[in-house]
Write a structure and sequence with these properties.
Layout lengths: L4 E3 L4 H7 L7 E4 L5 H6 L7 E4 L10 E3 L5 E4 L4 H6 L1 H6 L1 H7 L5 H4 L4 H6 L7 H7 L3 E6 L2 E6 H4 E3 L2 E2 L6 E7 L6 E8 L10 E10 L2 E10 L6 E2 L1 H7 L6 H14 L10 H21 L7
Parallel strand pairs: 1-3, 2-3
Antiparallel strand pairs: 4-5, 5-10, 6-7, 6-10, 8-9, 11-12, 12-13, 13-14
Length: 292
């Protein structure tokens, strides 16, 4: 491994100033769970690592936003999210997903910001955050901006974040009444491996029918994505197994699965069909209300 500089800025402003959009060898170090593996495999050889471990304030912890939603600092570890009473009370779908995300050794170190900034399409939290309408706040040399979670990951390991921007926090908005959600995934290799498919669903009911729906698929695809055909199949329908099956069929037809060691494209397409149906059944037949 080549030698490199390690710098530890004390403020967010200092960290941003150290970023160099013209030098691919400059990277930010948060939890380092993915970056260290890439360095050991010599897939990435840094010239400079900018450690964020000294940063504090809004970049750490879970806070209420005063309107029923949450603001989560980018340096909050995944185990802190998993154990947060605020997250469990407001967005239990996140707590449930975190319990089976990788393993506890990774969750003890990995951060929410690093999880999102890595851009791997197999990650568990992005489809859930897409489904519940989360946004990401970034800061760069020209100021801050908000990015909808649905727009954050644009392709395989590709982000809508500039090389001189940092993720500062994630905002999860309050949910309307009668909203139910769930997350279903399947790992073809080991239980703590990346999933072969992940499906997050969000449904609002009114008058005994599904009034609005969001279906987000990941792992089988090159990025977390909403599946409009499945959503259209649900809106106006009763919450029945037949409606869930139609949504699963629509999702399987719409996605373009990627083949890898976790399954062929045809296999993943079928897993999308199955897990859209399962996620909907879990949300609407054994619902967990998001808004308390």
């Amino acid at each position: 491994m080549k030698s490199f500089d390690l710098v530890e800025p004390g403020t967010l402003e200092e960290a941003v100033a150290l970023l160099d959009p013209e030098d691919a060898g400059v990277r930010v170090l948060a939890g380092g769970t993915a970056l260290m593996l890439m360095m050991k495999a010599r897939l990435f050889q840094p010239a400079r690592l900018i450690s964020l471990r000294r940063l504090d304030g809004v970049m750490r912890g879970v806070r209420e936003d005063g309107r029923g939603g949450l603001r989560i600092g980018a340096l909050t570890t995944l185990v802190e999210l998993e154990r947060s009473a605020l997250v469990a009370a407001t967005f239990p779908v996140l707590t449930g997903a975190l319990r089976t995300l990788s393993n506890v050794r990774i969750r003890n170190v990995a951060t929410l910001g690093g999880h999102l900034a890595h851009g791997d399409p197999h990650m568990d939290l992005p489809p859930i955050l897409v489904a519940i309408g989360a946004r990401v706040r970034t800061v760069g040399p020209i100021g801050e901006r908000w990015i909808d979670m649905a727009d954050l990951i644009t392709g395989y390991y590709q982000l809508a974040i500039a090389r001189d921007e940092l993720i500062v926090e994630v905002h999860v908005p309050a949910q309307p009444a009668n909203v139910f959600t769930s997350y279903a995934k399947y790992a073809a290799l080991s239980a703590d491996d990346w999933p072969s498919v992940g499906v997050a669903v969000w449904c609002r009911t009114a008058g005994g029918r599904i009034a609005d729906a969001r279906v987000a698929v990941s792992a089988a695809t090159d990025r977390p994505m909403r599946v409009s055909g499945a959503e259209a199949a649900l809106v106006g329908a009763e919450a029945t197994e037949a409606a869930f099956a139609r949504a699963g069929d629509a999702a399987a037809q719409e996605v373009e699965p990627l083949a890898d060691i976790r399954g062929s494209a045809a296999y993943k397409r079928e897993m999308v069909r199955v897990h859209v149906r399962r996620a909907l059944a879990a949300a609407l037949h054994a619902p967990s209300r998001l808004a308390r």
